[in-house]
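Quick one: sequence plus pyridoxal-5'-phosphate SMILES, need structure tokens.
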Amino acid sequence: MDFQISNRMRGMKPSVIREILKQMSDPELISFAGGNPAADSFPAKEIAQFSAEMLEQDPVGVLQYSVTEGVPAAREAVRKFANRHYSVVKANDDLILVSGSQQILDFVTKCLCNEGDVVAVENPAFLGAFLSFRCYGTKLVGVSMEEDGVNLEELEKVFAAEPKPRFFYCIPNFQNPTGRTMSEAKRKAVYALSVKYGVPVLEDDPYGELRIAGQAIAPIKSLDETGNVIYAASFSKIMCPGMRLAYCVCDKTLMKSLVIAKQGSDVHTNVWSQRICAELLTRMDMEAHIQEIRGIYREKAQWMMQLLDEKCPEIRYIRPEGGMFLWGTLPENVQMQDFVKRCLDKKLAVVPGNAFLVDENQPCQNFRMNFSTPTKQQIKMGVEIMAAVLREMQLQ
Ligand SMILES: Cc1ncc(COP(=O)(O)O)c(C=O)c1O
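Reply:
Sure thing.
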């Protein structure tokens, strides 16, 4: 069959990271490439227990179809969780449980964008988001990043330009890929610009609970008095990604469209996952669990940074206050793609930084390293491989 692929999908490229991860079947490969949570952070014992109890006591409730917005008890548990530190769910807002926050990125674009519309994005940013936005034929306009978040002058220019962006996508906490955190002042300024120019903000916050240093900063959504901010958060990093469970908080008027988008896509989120999530939130000590994950990541991040300082002083990197990634910068005389390829030849996978740029062909000296998945031993071996590659390249 000679399939005629739609204009929308023709020319779309698979995620670079998913392609690298395909090589993970090689048992010798050390991966700093993915963004998987540490396997020892999964509440596997509790999930097994709660699952067995639910299936025993209420099999039909767990296995039957359910409502699109989410199982009421799970929605209520998530609403309380979302609001426990800051007022995230406002009086005019609604909350929906979705199949991973990737789905929110998809639905928000589906609901707000027509083909050819502009979406403003932090640049670099999460490439899975770019994929979702581009699937609807949008044009991405990148706004560069500074130490404390997006460049506000550039952002204002992009908001003021014609055509106006349909929304602005940002990851204020421990951004993927750079690990940067948007300052409180910038969050306020981004919200003010959103109101001034009438451009909604899509605040993607899958890593917010994974703070390993510094002081917590309120999400942009907590400042929102006008319904401008669409907030997305996920349980992938604090429960487990296989559950595919996340939530979106936004103004009720937009939520009506999101619910219809979901009905046309997967009807509702997996009921078993929602019910397990509710049990975990109400019966497990989530705060202690989150502290434990933070402890694991703090130790691994510090270990990776210490080894980089010792063995690869040429690589500069941003010290993240949380999340899962280090963003490395290579010296000018080291060609980044060549470095990444040589690392892979020696069985270390890292992600070339240009994969996270709106324009992948821009010059780029960066690469992304993940510290949550590899063991401490693998982190050491991986950094040693990078040191050997750097020696090899600088000697030539
Ligand atoms: C910034 C960002 N947003 C969203 C996602 C999607 O997460 P999930 O669909 O597992 O909730 C990821 C995944 O790593 C991410 O890094």
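The radius of gyration is 21 Å. The longest helix spans residues 286-311.
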